[in-house]
C-alpha cells in the first residue's frame, strides 16, 4: 500500500504505479462498504473541488459532486461556456487561479487533439491536484471503476479475458478515451485483451504499442481482430461500445458514413452466447439502446452496467481522499 499520494494528479492511470492503483482500489472498497453501513467518512472536510466541464455529463458530474459532499467537502460545477475562457482565460490562468480557490481541479475536455494538452497545461500551473474527468485520450476514473467492477464480479482478474469491442451507434462520434484506457490498464492487472474494431476505427498507434508492451511485460495476451463475433469468443468480460473513426477522419459527415457501414456491430443475445457462459456485459453509458446493444442484453442478467456506474462514485472518492487531503 502506498500512503504518499497527497498532491498527485490523476490524468492517466499510466502515471500511477500498480501498487498506487491498488491502494486507490482498496480505499474505494472501504468507502463503498462504509457507505453501505451508513458510516460517515468526512475525510475532506472544508475542502473544495472545481469541476470544469467543456462537455456534457450525467455520471461524472453527479458522482464527483455527490462524492465531495459525502467526504465532507463541496464541489462547484463550472460549465466552460459560462466562464471567461472564450474571452481569454488561458489554461495557465485557470490552473493558477482555480488552484488558489480550490483544493482540486477536475476537468472534462474531450476535444480531439486539445483535451489532454489542456488538462496538462492546467496541471502545470496548478498548486493542487488535477483530475481528468475524460479527455480525448484517457478516461481514467471510468476505467478504474470498470476494474473495481470486474474484481467484484469475477474475483482476481489475472488470466481473465476481456474483449474491448467497437459497436455501432447512431447518435454521434464518441471519443476513443474509454477503449484506449481499457487496453492500457487491464494487462497490468493480468487480463488477456482482445481489441476488436472495423478497419477504419483504429486507436492511436502509440497507445496500442504501449498496451502491447504492457501485455508482454505482464505476460498477458493481446490480440487485434476485425470481426465482432471473433472477438467475443470465450470472453469473460464483454466491453463493447462505439467510438469515432478519429484516426481515419475528423470530418463528422465522413465519419458518420464510415460508422453507418457497420450497423450490424450490435451486442445481441446471440453474440453474448459466443462469450464464456458466465461472461459479464459492461458499458460506461450512455448507450444507444437497441442500436449499440440490444435492450435484452443491457437489461439482462449478464449486464453489470449499474454497478459499474455506481463504482465511479467509490473510486473517485478514494482518489480525491488520497490526493486532496
Ligand atoms: N461514463 C461517463 O463518463 O458518463 P457521463 O458522460 O454521463 O459522465
Briefly say what this structure is.
This protein has 325 residues and is α/β, with parallel strands linked by helices. It has helices at residues 18-37, 59-70, 91-101, 115-125, 140-154, 177-185, 205-218, 228-232, 252-260, 269-272, 295-298, 305-323; strands at 48-53, 74-79, 104-109, 130-135, 161-166, 192-196, 222-225, 237-241, 280-282.
Structure report:
- This protein has helices at 18-37, 59-70, 91-101, 115-125, 140-154, 177-185, 205-218, 228-232, 252-260, 269-272, 295-298, 305-323, and strands spanning 48-53, 74-79, 104-109, 130-135, 161-166, 192-196, 222-225, 237-241, 280-282.
- The protein is an alpha/beta fold and 325 residues long.
- It folds into 2 domains: 13-139 and 309-323, Aspartate/ornithine carbamoyltransferase (Rossmann fold), CATH 3.40.50.1370; 142-308, Aspartate/ornithine carbamoyltransferase (Rossmann fold), CATH 3.40.50.1370.
- It has a 5-stranded parallel sheet with strand order 7-6-5-8-9. Strands 2-1-3-4 form a 4-stranded parallel sheet, with helices on both faces.
Number of helices: 12
* CATH-derived architecture of the largest domain: 3-Layer(aba) Sandwich
Please provide the ordered H/E string of secondary-structure elements.
Answer: HEHEHEHEHEHEHEHEHHEHH
* Distinct small-molecule ligands in the complex: phosphoric acid mono(formamide)ester
How is the secondary structure organized here?
Blueprint: H1 18-37, E1 48-53, H2 59-70, E2 74-79, H3 91-101, E3 104-109, H4 115-125, E4 130-135, H5 140-154, E5 161-166, H6 177-185, E6 192-196, H7 205-218, E7 222-225, H8 228-232, E8 237-241, H9 252-260, H10 269-272, E9 280-282, H11 295-298, H12 305-323
Helix pairs in contact: 1-12, 2-12, 3-4, 5-6, 5-12, 6-7
The chain binds phosphoric acid mono(formamide)ester (CP).
Amino acid at each position: 500500500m502506498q500512503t504518499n499520494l497527497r498532491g498527485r494528479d490523476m490524468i492517466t492511470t499510466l502515471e500511477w504505479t500498480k501498487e498506487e492503483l491498488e491502494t486507490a482500489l482498496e480505499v474505494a472498497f472501504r468507502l463503498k462498504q462504509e457507505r453501505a453501513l451508513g458510516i460517515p467518512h468526512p475525510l475532506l472536510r472544508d475542502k473544495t473541488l472545481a469541476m470544469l466541464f467543456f462537455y456534457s455529463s450525467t455520471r461524472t458530474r453527479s458522482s464527483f459532486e455527490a462524492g465531495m459532499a459525502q467526504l465532507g467537502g463541496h464541489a462547484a460545477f463550472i460549465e466552460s461556456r459560462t466562464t471567461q475562457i472564450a474571452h481569454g482565460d488561458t489554461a495557465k490562468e485557470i490552473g493558477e487561479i482555480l488552484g488558489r480557490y480550490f483544493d482540486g481541479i477536475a476537468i472534462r475536455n474531450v476535444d480531439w487533439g486539445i483535451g489532454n494538452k489542456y488538462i496538462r497545461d492546467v496541471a502545470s500551473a496548478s498548486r493542487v491536484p488535477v483530475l481528468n474527468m475524460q479527455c480525448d485520450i484517457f478516461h481514467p476514473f471510468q476505467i478504474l471503476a470498470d476494474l473495481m467492477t470486474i474484481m467484484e464480479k469475477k474475483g482476481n482478474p489475472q488470466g481473465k479475458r476481456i474483449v474491448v469491442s467497437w459497436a455501432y451507434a447512431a447518435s454521434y462520434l464518441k471519443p476513443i478515451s474509454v477503449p484506449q484506457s481499457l487496453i492500457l490498464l487491464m494487462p497490468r492487472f493480468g487480463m488477456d485483451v482482445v481489441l476488436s474494431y472495423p478497419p477504419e476505427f483504429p486507436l492511436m498507434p502509440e497507445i496500442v504499442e504501449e498496451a502491447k508492451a504492457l501485455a508482454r511485460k505482464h505476460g498477458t495476451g493481446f490480440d487485434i481482430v476485425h470481426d465482432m463475433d471473433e472477438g467475443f469468443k470465450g470472453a469473460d468480460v464483454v466491453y463493447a461500445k462505439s467510438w469515432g473513426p478519429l484516426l481515419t477522419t475528423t470530418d463528422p459527415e465522413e465519419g458518420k458514413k464510415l460508422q453507418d457501414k457497420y450497423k450490424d456491430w450490435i451486442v445481441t443475445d446471440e453474440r453474448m452466447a459466443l462469450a464464456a457462459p458466465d461472461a459479464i456485459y459492461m458499458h460506461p453509458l450512455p448507450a444507444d439502446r437497441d442500436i449499440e446493444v440490444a435492450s435484452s442484453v443491457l437489461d439482462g442478467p449478464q449486464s453489470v452496467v449499474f454497478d459499474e456506474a455506481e463504482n465511479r462514485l467509490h473510486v473517485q472518492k478514494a482518489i480525491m481522499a488520497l490526493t486532496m487531503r
